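Sample entry (261 residues):
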Amino acid sequence: MEFPRKSLLDYVQVPTSFEELDNKGNQINCFLSWKNTKLTKTHFREYVKFFEMNPEVKFILFDDNLQQKWMETFFGDHEIFSIYEGVKFEASKSDIFRLCLLKKYGGIFIGINRVLDTPIYKFIRDKNQFVLSFDKNYYKRDKYPEAFPAEFKDFSVAQYIVIASKNHEVLNLAIKKIIEHAPLFNKVIFESPKNAIWNFSAPYLLTHAVDDYIEIYGLENISLCGFEYNGYSRIPNGAEYRYGFSPSYLGAKHQMILDYN
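Predicted structure, serialized as tokens:
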């Protein structure tokens, strides 16, 4: 069933030139990505509230074609691009894209399936920081740094929203890990693509990049924001209908997640 959709174009910028994305002064960039500029009506209304709560923020939306062009322009000669090209699920492409995008510009990337019920500026008081928040899903791992906040050690880093300064080392470590571990995922058929993706490019990957960072630097240039961005992050009403346009990988079985040379 196709649901009526409304365009976000009155509220977001779709860049015609990538030079427009360079940070100007104290401007906050909030990046979004989706198949196109349209959402179902309920999802749209939720996002309008979010936009109106953040009048000082520049919202920039990438559709699939613009995302591809951006990756080719800025990472076309980088090893991460050949991996990006070989990714089989769009959500995993978005995982890689958000790391590369924030590495270049800094700011906030928010998945289309999340909104914040508080102004964004409250999380970006220091532009040199990586904002570290946690998902409430249990995630037990054998090893974590001594300086890792003990109350969060059995939970994964929230990755549906990423807030980071330009070229923050957590982003660099995450991209490096994807490159290093890609051969382990390449051309392999996984009984559960979800688990593979979460380890390859999504929350578990980011959790281990944070582990590596804290092992080296402690909590320097880390802003700690509890669970789900201090409880302000949520799934917007109507977001479930996005799967009618872009099927989720969550129920996929016996598939590859990566095929590159």
